[in-house]
Structure formats: C-alpha cells, structure tokens
Design brief:
Layout lengths: L1 H8 L8 H14 L4 H25 L6 H9 L2 H6 L6 H20 L3 H17 L2 H16 L8 H25 L3 E2 L2 E2 H6 L3 H10 L17 H16 L10 H26 L2 H24 L3 H8 L3 H25 L3 H9 L2
Antiparallel strand pairs: 1-2
Helix pairs in contact: 1-2, 3-4, 3-6, 4-16, 6-7, 6-8, 7-8, 7-9, 8-9, 8-14, 12-14, 13-14, 13-16
Length: about 350
C-alpha cells in the first residue's frame, strides 16, 4: 500500500530499512503495474530461491539424505508459508541471510575463497540495508566467517588465510562504514548510533517505547546490577522464544503460537544434542549453525515485545533449527516407532504365558 502511494507521489530519495524496501518496491510497480499480487509473487519467488539455497547448504553440511524432510519442515510451517507469500521484507532478509551463510561456509570448504568472501560481504550488506538491526548482524557475520574455520586453527595455512581475509574484511567494512555515513536512521546518523551512543541504553529506551498490544509481553531490562541485567536479558530471550504460555492462551491464534513455541523448544533440544554427539568437522559446522541461531534470535529478542512480531521474526532462523534438530528428531521417533511395532503387546503376552 505504501509503495503504491509512493509511486503515485512520484517522490524518490535514498533511505534505509523499511523505507528503502518500500521505495524499491515502488520502482518495480513503476516498471510493471502497481499490484499487490505482483508484490506477493516477488516474495514467493524470493522464498522459492531460499529453498534452493537451503539444499545447497545441506550438501555442504553433508545432510543431503534429509533434503526432502528438511524442505518440508521448512516450508510447511504455517507461519513460514504465510509470511513467505505476502509483501514483506522477511522473505528477502531470509534469502540474503541464507546466501551469506552459504558463501561463508563455502569459503572454508571449497576453493575460490576470495570470490566467496566477496559474495558473503555483498549478501550480508544486502540483508543489512533492509533492516537497521540486521545491519549490525551483517558486520558481525562477516567478521565471524573471517575468523571461523571448520578445522583446528593452526599451522602455516591459517597464517596465510589471515593474510588474505583480514585486508579484504577491513576493506569491505570501511566501504560499508562510508555508506553508513550518508544514511540516517530516524533522523540520527547511523555511525553515531553505532559508535557514540550507549547500546544498552538505546535498547532499554526502545523497549520502553514499544506499543502495547494484546499479544505483548512486556519484559524490561533491569540495569541496577550486572546480575539483574543478565537475568532480565535471559528473561527477554525466553519470552521471545516460547510465548504464549498455556495460561496466556485465549484464542486459536494463541494456541497455534504456543504449539509452535513447543515445537521450537523440541527442535532446539535435539539441535544441542546433535551437536553434542557430533565430532570433528561436523561438530564445528553444527556449532557454527547453532551460534548463528542464538545470535540472531538474541538480536530479535532485544527489539521485540509481542509474540505476533516474534513469530514473523522466527521465519529468518527457522531453517537453522530444522537443519540441526530435525534429523536427530526423525531418528529418535523412528527408533521409538520400531520398538512399538516389534513389541506391540509385550506386556500382555507375558501375562498370558503365565496363565496355566
């Protein structure tokens, strides 16, 4: 709707975040037709491409045998299917996040490290310009893949790798910083927000100004001490991950959100268990995926105050939980089912044998 209004006003200027997405969408409408159906089709296309990228990531992680169930688990979740088919930023943020992760892993697993690093930086910055919170995560992602390795970091190879990666990473960071110097976020220079203002203070202020709605869960940050700050941050993360709780359910939407939170908790448990049972390179890869999941969900948790918005944000990280947790969950359920089929009436059969 806003993109159509912008198209009709014939005004266009450089911006950042949601305004940038709206203006880019208005350009598409100017070239073709101001149709909401077209915007939805573009979101579906972005989501479809992300499914293709998911398959590529599975092959890097040596999980190709689980392609079909993981794709189904990723695409058939109602919230993901819904938000992936409407005109929102999330399908594009998801696609760019997955592409950045793919090229970050490929940089260490395959040849052409320079090209893969370049593509990692490009897609990470594409993700960042769509949301001001993801901009911080984009630079974090670039630095993380610059120092992470699937092998023990030792020897001459690691030194040569650092000689290549550090200059390139610094170059892209400086380019991004220069671009940020011309961008304003809510009237304030982006670099000022990042470097000059206390981050925790801005988070506290942001949470205090959140709009109170029916699905809101207001958890403030207690900065009275280090212990209370840590506790309140953990409480915020917990409320972001698993709301609404059973005593908060009042309608069908609450029931669905609660069921999704329970499923999320189950997948998280099996993800951690799978990482704990793995070894070698596979363990480091699974640990990387879990670290990405916790990092991004932690970022979203700080800026989210209701579980309706939280469900939409979980779309960006759901694929990580499916990759890391679903294979072990399927294996566990398969073993349980086989035991039930093999011994369906074992208790009663033993009772019958004892009857003279």
């Amino acid at each position: 709707m806003y993109a159509i209004e912008l198209l009709q006003s014939e005004k266009f200027s450089a911006s950042f975040g949601a305004p940038l997405f709206t203006k880019l969408l208005s350009v598409v409408y100017r070239l073709f037709d101001p149709s909401r159906f077209l915007g939805a089709q573009m979101s579906i296309l972005a989501f479809a491409v992300s499914c293709f990228v998911l398959v590529k990531i599975l092959r890097l992680l040596e999980l190709s045998e689980y392609e079909v169930p993981i794709l189904l688990g990723f695409g058939l979740i109602p919230s993901v299917a819904l938000f992936g088919s409407v005109t929102l930023r999330e399908p594009y943020e998801l696609l760019f996040f997955m592409l950045a992760t793919y090229y970050g892993i490929k940089m260490h697993m395959k040849n052409n490290r320079t090209i893969n690093l370049f593509l990692l930086c490009i897609f990470a910055l594409f993700m960042g310009v769509l949301h001001k919170g993801l901009l911080f995560f984009a630079f974090f992602l670039i630095l993380l893949f610059s120092v992470w390795t699937p092998r023990p970091a030792s020897g001459l190879w690691y030194i040569k790798k650092l000689r290549l990666l550090i200059p390139l990473t610094i170059s892209f960071t400086l380019i991004g910083a220069y671009q940020l110097s011309t961008v304003a976020i809510e009237g304030v220079n982006a670099l000022t927000v990042i470097f000059n203002e206390p981050l925790l203070g801005r988070i506290v202020e942001h949470r205090e100004n959140l709009t109170i709605r029916r699905a809101s869960y207001f958890v403030s940050i207690d900065t009275s001490s280090l212990l209370m700050t840590t506790y309140s941050l953990f409480k915020i993360y917990f409320h972001y991950m698993f709301p609404p709780f059973p005593w908060n359910i009042t309608n069908a939407y609450d029931l669905y959100a609660s069921a999704e939170g329970i499923f999320r908790a189950v997948l998280l448990y099996f993800s951690v268990k799978c990482w704990h049972n793995a070894y070698g390179q596979q363990r480091r890869l699974l640990g990387l995926m879990l670290f990405l999941y916790i990092s991004m969900t932690g970022l979203w948790a700080l800026g989210t105050g209701n579980y309706g918005t939280a469900i939409r944000h979980h779309m960006l990280t759901w694929w990580i939980l499916i990759i890391t947790g679903l294979p072990l969950l399927m294996t566990t359920l398969g073993r349980f089912r086989l035991r039930r089929i093999k011994y369906p009436f074992s208790y009663f059969s033993k009772r019958v044998e004892k009857i003279p």
